[in-house]
Amino acid sequence: MADTRIEKLADLLVNYSVGVRPGDKAVITGETIAEPLLKAIYACVLKAGGYPTMMVGLAGLEEIFYRYASDDQLKHLPDWQREIISTYDVRISIDAEHNTKALTNVDPEKMVMYRQSRRELMDIAMRRSAAKELRWTVAIFPTNAYAQDAEMGLSEYEDFVYSACMPDINDPVAYWQRFSAWQQKIVDWLKGKKSVHVIGPETDLRLSIVGRPFENCDGRYNIPDGEVFTSPVEDSVEGKVCFSYPAIYDGHEVTGVRLKFEKGRVVEATAEKNEEFLLKLIDTDEGSRRVGEFAIGTNEGITRFTRQILFDEKINGSFHMALGAGYPETGSQNKSAIHWDLICDLRDGGEIWVDDELMYQNGKFVIEF
Q1: Residue 308 and residue 320: Cα distance in Å, rounded?
Q2: Rounded to whole angstroms, how far apart are CA atoms 193 and 292?
Q3: Which CATH superfamily includes the segment(s) 4-166?
Q4: Is the bond into 232 cis (omega within 30 degrees of 0)?
Q5: Reduced to 3 states, what is the DSSP secondary structure of residue 196?
Q6: Domain spans in the chain, listed from the N-terminal domain onward
Q7: Angle subtended at Cα 172 by Cα 166 and Cα 173, rounded to the nearest 5 degrees
Q8: How far, in Å, CA of 158 to CA of 175, rounded?
Q9: What is the pLDDT of residues 251-283, one digit of tens each?
Q10: How many CA atoms lie within 13 A of 96 on its CB side?
Q11: pLDDT in tens, 97-141
């Protein structure tokens, strides 16, 4: 029997997250395992008057690509990819994997080379998004691979995913609108503030947010959502941070990440597992050792780590920061071929001070919003 939640999620993505309008050119991406959701999204785009282009990948192609591609092939950027990101109005991306560890043993240097070749696409996408020329969103389709990573059965994981995406299954849009109104109070309070100081286990981090507005993440760019984020002044990050959870990038799981910053740049980096990958990735380019994003997770429905960044970065009681590219709408000047989110749990003794005022303690706001 068809899962009616799939239709509701498709409707939420098309009509709320990206708001497809008549005449919009929309590209939809995902793998074959997400077929039910991809078809539902395709139908919703058509009903909204848009012109959908479906791009469906096959499981295992990335593994084959990295195994056989020459350096020239790794660096090649097809014209059609540049055209889509430069001209389409809407992009809906559905993450769905058969095997989340498929790229674990790929040479990190190959991955860095490939990422460098895609920097132009990232720059275009971020610029057009900030200018409201490109509306985009990312969601996931529950798979056995994701359920295994989260240490759940598939049915349990499906319930987890859909309840996080649509806490009010009867009216998902109304829920995210209410959430947006609440979260906007946090953004408004942060407006005009100058400095942030984060304290936690093995963490003492300072950064400047002068002239850097926070964004209200309310189900537009991600489903599920639940964070407020900005970009720190590029040369302002100082101190040390220890990330509570494994940092995952292209199938590589890096645990026990510890970073030290001076004048906004990572000057020391260690990890308990996969340190070599960490060091290669932060040397991708000049911007990959700097912080492009600082964010506080606010989704009360997400309380556990699942190894799926779309959910984990929203964990209520956490903050995360991304090494690499920052979002222009927050004033970021940092450009990079990577954007790597790393998460720190603040529920056990963590604090966030803003302009020397305690804002957040033990994973909760101490200021009432």
Answers
A1: 14
A2: 18
A3: Thermophilic metalloprotease (M29) (3.40.1830.10)
A4: no
A5: strand
A6: 4-166, 185-365
A7: 140
A8: 19
A9: 899 999 999 999 999 999 999 999 999 999 999
A10: 25
A11: 999 999 999 999 999 999 999 999 999 999 999 999 999 999 999
